[in-house]
Amino acid sequence: MVPFKSGTTYKVRLVSDEDFVEYYAANVFKVFYTTPVAPGNLYQQASDLLYADAKKASDAGDEAKAEELRDQAYQLKPKPRYLFGFINLEDGEPIIVDCTKAQAKVLISAIEKYAKKIDKVAFELSKDGTSTSTTVSLSPVLDMDEDLTDKERENFNKAKDAKVPDELYENVLYMKNVSEQIEDLERFGFDVSRLNVVGGENSDPTEEF
Question: pTM for this structure?
Fold first, then answer.
């Protein structure tokens, strides 16, 4: 996984038009960072309870409270994200970048548009903007001789039969255990006693879920 912050540009080679995967993750801005989740995760459970609370508030006629609870529930609800694999022309090695669903739509559209040219041209993968106005782009390098260094052209040619290993996708994400999920929810302000879980320092998410 490589950093993909605003202002970042990578010159890359696409190894196929299918080198991306979807996963689900929870994230609350300024509370806890993006964390991949498995089915039955605590973020989803907490979100479901908050949505139920919102319905009760709405049924009772307190729409302001219902809206507040729906907003909290939406923040906690895990959402789809995407991992994209490329060959980095700087060193010829495979890299993975992480994107939101909206950003992924842009990249997938570009990949589909240029699918027939991926063996012929390199691409510039970029991210610009701030906060909700952040945008990503994947654009073909129009002049391979002018816009690529000798080393980048060499790595492009060497990567003709390159692959992004499946295990690379599997190994770049860290899934928090139950104790860590509880800590995130407590920081968010959710009453974790409402969840039917037993936390522990050595909790294993594969065992809990």
Answer: 0.83
